[in-house]
């Protein structure tokens, strides 16, 4: 059994503020330790279910948050950037299931540290006309490969977003949002036991594989900066629908990879702090 973990940081147990999740934050070192503990709980659950191969992708910010020595010894780690597939680097059709650890809700939601990929620079994303964030885009890309998302951990808002996108996902709330930078925290031991138990149960038996999606989909992104939207149509296949919105159609996961190029262009043109 081959299991893939994509690990973000905003939805990790106990973390509520940019100082918890950004390398210059005063509580970042504690945050990365908390991140490793949530990941290791998920790895233990996967191993209990019979996983023989566990690949972990550090998917947050600089993508060098997880220290290799802090990771469960049975797991392999994809670390650093750039990565052609970003938050989904290393995911292939050979994986039996994907687990999303520490995910957060999309831009505009009143969830802990909510945003979509680039803080305030990305205002909205739609996939075939449906509002989507990192959760939905990850699930759709995995589905296109025929890989089910078995479990997602994060705050209650992220969990609700995940199950509304795919009600087969087993969601584990590790905190309950009071606002964008405030939450009621689930006790650490309880949260991690819930992660471990839910992963083990969700993989026993393995969830059914979704039918691989071969049809074209349309990805639409509304940017804060009109300059970004004016530049991106220089990429073949990208068109502008108004002064701040662009879209492109194609098959996933190719379109997910192209979206990563859009973000690299936007990063080169802007300097937006993630959580201002």
What is the gist of this entry?
The chain is an alpha/beta fold.
- Helix/strand class: alpha/beta
Widest sheet: strand ordering: 3-2-1-4-7-8-9
Q: Which architecture of the domain at 2-105 and 134-202 per CATH?
A: 3-Layer(aba) Sandwich
- CATH fold type of the domain at 2-105 and 134-202: Rossmann fold
What is the CATH top level name of the domain at 2-105 and 134-202? Alpha Beta
- Uncertain stretches: none
Number of strands: 12
Global outline: globular
CATH homologous superfamily heading of the domain at 2-105 and 134-202: Dipeptide transport protein
Number of helices: 7
What is the share of helical residues? 25-40%
Query: What radius of gyration results from the CA coordinates?
Result: 18 Å
Cα separation of the termini: 42 Å
In what range is the share of β-strand residues? 25-35%
Mean pLDDT: 96
Biggest sheet architecture: 7 strands, mixed
- H/E element order: EHHEEEEEHEHEEHEHEEH
Keywords: Metal-binding, Zinc
InterPro entries: DppA_N, Peptidase_M55, Peptidase_M55_sf
Protein name: Peptidase M55
Pfam families: Peptidase_M55 (PF04951)
Can you describe this structure?
This protein has helices at 18-21, 28-48, 134-144, 156-165, 188-202, 226-231, 254-269, and strands at residues 2-7, 53-58, 75-78, 97-103, 122-127, 130-131, 149-155, 170-179, 182-185, 217-223, 239-242, 245-250. The chain starts with a strand and ends in a 7-residue tail after the last helix. The strands form two sheets. A seven-stranded mixed β-sheet has the order 3-2-1-4-7-8-9, sandwiched between helices. With 276 residues, it is an alpha/beta fold. The protein has a domain at 2-105 and 134-202: Dipeptide transport protein (Rossmann fold), CATH 3.40.50. The model has no long low-confidence stretch (mean pLDDT 96). 49% of the residues are buried. Helix 2 (28-48) runs parallel beside helix 5. It is built from seven helices and twelve strands.
